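Aim 2, interim progress. The first record below pairs a target sequence with its C-alpha cells.
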Amino acid sequence: MQEQADVDPRFELKIDPGRALPEAIADKLRQLVEEGEYKPGGRLPNEAELARKLKVARSSVRTALQRLEAMRILEVRRGRGWYVRRAPAESSGPLDARDYQVSDLFELRIGLEGLAASLAAVRITEGELEDLAKINKQHQEADDREEMLRTDVAFHEAIVRAARNTALERTYQGIIGELADWRFQSFAAPGVGRRSAREHSKVLRYLRNHDPGGARVAMNGHLQRLYDELPEIGAEPLDTTESVVDLDPEWRD
C-alpha cells in the first residue's frame, strides 16, 4: 500500500513494446514542460530525483535529458543542473517544422549550415576555433550514441553561432530539433562517429584558414552524405557541388 501511495500519476510512463525507455522518458518530460509543470527558465529536479519519480535508472534519465537538449527543449548549465529553455523550440523560428518531411528539413539545413560555415570563416574568433577543436576531439572519442549526438549538436551549433547572424540562427533552431531523433539513429552504424569527426576536422581546417568557400563546400559535403542516406529521397540525391563560377560573396567581418 505504501509503494502504491508513492506513485505520482504525473510521472507514470507509457512503455510500448519495442520502444526505447529513454524515448518514453523524454516524451513524458516534454509533456510536463508543455503542461507547465516545468516552466520556461525553471530548473528541473536533479537526475537522481527524476529517476526516483519515474521509477527508472538514472542512466536512462540522463539519456532522455540529452535528447531533449538536442531538441532545444532543455539546456544544461554546468554545475547547476537542467533547465527549461526560455523560448519554446517551436517558436524559435518561422516554421512549424513538424509539418515537413525529414528530407525537406535536411535540404534547408544544408543551405543554412553551408551559409553559416561561410560566414563563420570570416567572423569566428581564435577562442571559438579552439572550443570547436575541443568539441570535435570529444566527438571523436565518444563511445556511445548519446555522447556522439551531444558533441555533434555542440559542434554544428557553435558554427552557426560564429556566423553572427541572428535571423539565420533562429531559423536553424526552428528546424534542427525536429531532426534530433533521426540524428540519434544515424550514429548506430559502426564507424559513423569516426567518419563524422574526420569531416568535422575538414570543416574546422577551412575555418582556421578563414576560407569561406572551402568551409561552405566542406560543410555541404558533410551534410550531403547524410542526406543521400535518407530512405525517402530515392534515386535523386542532392548535388551541392561547387562549380567554377560558384564563388562566395565578400562577407563583412
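The second target in this work package is listed in the same format:
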Amino acid sequence: MIVIFGLIAGAILGLRSAHQRGGNRLDKAQYAAVGGIIGALLGLFATIGLEKLL
C-alpha cells in the first residue's frame, strides 16, 4: 500500500511541477512518470524498512 501511495503522490507532484513550469502535455506526462517512479521507489524502501523493524 505504501508503494501505491508513493506512486500516486509522486505522479501528482510531478504533474503539478510540470504545470507550474509551463510544460506541454508531453512534459507533464514525463514529469508524472518520473515522479511516480521516484515515489514508488521511496515507498518500496519505506516498506522494506518497516518490515525489518516489525
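Residues 2 and 43 are 5 Å apart (CA to CA). This observation will shape the mutagenesis plan for the next reporting period.
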